[in-house]
C-alpha cells in the first residue's frame, strides 16, 4: 500500500504518541503484568524480540519462564498453546507471518474452535494466536497475504484486526482476557504507523466497531490496513462535498453489524474496503447481512472494494494494482455517491 | 515400581472386562440401528488404557484418539455416559455433540479424543508445558495409533517436548495396521514410534501392549522420569484390534493365522492366566465377570432409557459464555 497513512485522530494534543509495533508489545506486557498465567511462545520472540520487533522488552521483563522461543514448528506452537490453554494458562502464540497459519491450519480449523463444542462445553481454550498479516511491503505471494477471511470461515474463532496503536492495546487486553480463542491479526503495513498511546487500563470489548469519522452520504466499512485508506479517501472526498462515514470494524467475530446497519440507515449507501481477495472476502458476509436486513435502507448497490483475485505479486507497481488504494476507493465512492 | 497384588490385577481385569463389554454393546447397538455415524472400537486395546491409567495420578492429563472409548472409561467416564453419547442421548458424555470419536471427560482430566490423526500430540506437550510452568508435578499422556507416527505433528511434538524437557509420555498403540494398510508397508522403520525416538534423543520401549501389568510398569517408569524432570518417554505398545478399523471395515485384509495368534493373546486372557497363576480361584474371576456384565447391561439400559438430545443444544457451548452468538 503506497498510500498507507496514519489515521487522523481527534485527540488531546498533549497525549503521547507511539507506534502500532510498540503497542503490540505494550498490550502483551500489560496483560502479563496483571496475570501470571499469560505466557508467550513463538519463533524468535524472546532474546531476538521478534522479527517485526513486536515483542521488544518482553523477554527482558518476563524472562525465559514466560517468553518461550520455539522451533519452526507451527503445529507444535499452536498445538502446545492449545494444550496449555486447556490446562490453566493463557498462552499468546505468535505465528510469524499469517501465511504460515496454513502450516497449522488443522488447529485453527478443526481443533481450537471445536473442542469446547464437541465436548459439550467441558473444555475452555483461552488462547490468543497473534500473527503479522497483509501486504504492502513487497514480500511476495507467500509473505503478504491478508488472510483474515480464512479465520472468519470457522465458527468458534474470534477474529480481531486493529487499525491503530491504541486499539492494538485495548483489543489485546480483551483478547488475552477472553475465555474464547482469538486470532489477532497485526497488520505488517501498519507496524510503523503512529497514533496516540493507549491510556492506562485501556480495554476495548471484542465486537464493538467504531464510527471513526461521521458522514451523511456514504458509509465506508473498513478493517485494519483499509481503515487509513478509507479515512484518506473520505478526506479527499470531503473537498468535493461528499460526506463519508467511516466504520472501523475492529473485529470480524464478533461482527458488529448493528453499528454497520445503523450507519447505512443514516447514509443509505455502503462501500466495503477489504484487503483480502474479493473471492471469499469478509465483505461478502457484511454485504449479505446488509442485503438481508438493511435492504430497505439502501439507495444504491453495495460496493465491495477488495484485493484482486490473484496471488500477491512482488513488485510495488504490481502489488499496488491488486490491493485497494486511496485512489480506487475514492473513485468508487464518488460514483456511489452519484448513483 | 508398583507392586502387584491380587486385588490390583483383579481390579484391572474388571476394568478391562467392562470396557470390552461396552465395546461389544456399542457394536450391537450399532447393528440395532441405535448408534449412528461411525465407531472405532478399542476391543483388544484394553490393556494399554487400563494399564497406563493405573500408573497415573488422577490429576494427570490424558489425550486420546478417535479410537478412544477405552481411554475415557479407563480414566473414569461412566460406560452409560459413553454409550449415551454414541446413541445421541442428552445424557451423553459430551451432550451428544461429540459422538464416538470425541469422548472427553474433563472432570477426570481426560481432555479429549481427537479425530485428526496426530493432532493431539502437540496438545499433550502443551499440557505438560503448562504443568511444568505451574509446578504442579502433573504429567500428560498422549495415546496414538501407529499411523500417527508418519504425520508431521508427531515429529513436531516429539522435538518440542524433547528440547523443552516436558513431562509427557507418548504411548503408541501399535496394532499393526494404519486403517487398512499394514503399517510396515508405509513406514521406513520397523517400530514406527520407538525407532523414531533416537532422532530426538528420547528413551523408548517396545512392550507387550496386551499385558496390563507390563503396560502399567512401563508407564510407571515413564511417569516417574517425567515427574523427575527427565523429560518425555516413548512407549510403543504392541496390540491388536478385535474389530476392523471402523464399523464399516470387516478387516478381511488381515491373515487368519495372524488374527488367531493375536486373539490367543487377548488382554483379558493374558490377565486371566496371570490371575490363575497367582492362584486366584476361578469362581472369583467368574464373580468379577458377572459384575462387569451387569455394569455393562445397566449402562445399556440407562443409555436406552435416556432422552434424545434437545435440539436447542445445537446452539450452546460454542463460546465460553455458553452461547453461539457471533454478531450483533
Provide keyphrases for this structure.
heterodimer, A: about 350 residues, alpha/beta, Rossmann fold, seven-stranded mixed sheet, five-stranded mixed sheet, 12 helices, 14 strands, about 35% helix, disordered N terminus, B: about 325 residues, six-stranded parallel sheet, 8 strands
Structure explained in plain terms:
The complex is a heterodimer of chains A (339) and B (328). Chain A is globular. Chain A contains twelve helices and 14 strands. With 339 residues, chain A is an alpha/beta fold. In chain A, helix 8 (226-238) links the parallel strand 10 (218-222) and strand 11 (244-248). Chain A starts with 16 loop residues before the first strand and ends with a helix. In chain A, 34% of the residues lie in helices and 20% in strands. The model of chain A is unreliable at 1-12 (pLDDT under 50). By secondary structure, chain B is α/β, with parallel strands linked by helices. Chain B has a single domain (6-308), classed as Thiamin diphosphate (ThDP)-binding fold, Pyr/PP domains (Rossmann fold), CATH 3.40.50.970. Chain B is built from ten helices and eight strands. In chain B, the strands form two sheets. In chain B, strands 2-1-3-4-8-7 form a six-stranded parallel beta sheet, sandwiched between helices. Chain B has a two-stranded antiparallel sheet with strand order 5-6. In chain B, helix 1 (6-31) packs antiparallel against helix 9 (267-277). The longest helix of chain B is centred in the N-terminal third of the chain and has 26 residues, at 6-31. The chains are: A alpha/beta (339), B alpha/beta (328). At the A-B interface, helix 3, helix 4, helix 5 and helix 9 of A face strand 2, helix 5 and helix 6 of B.
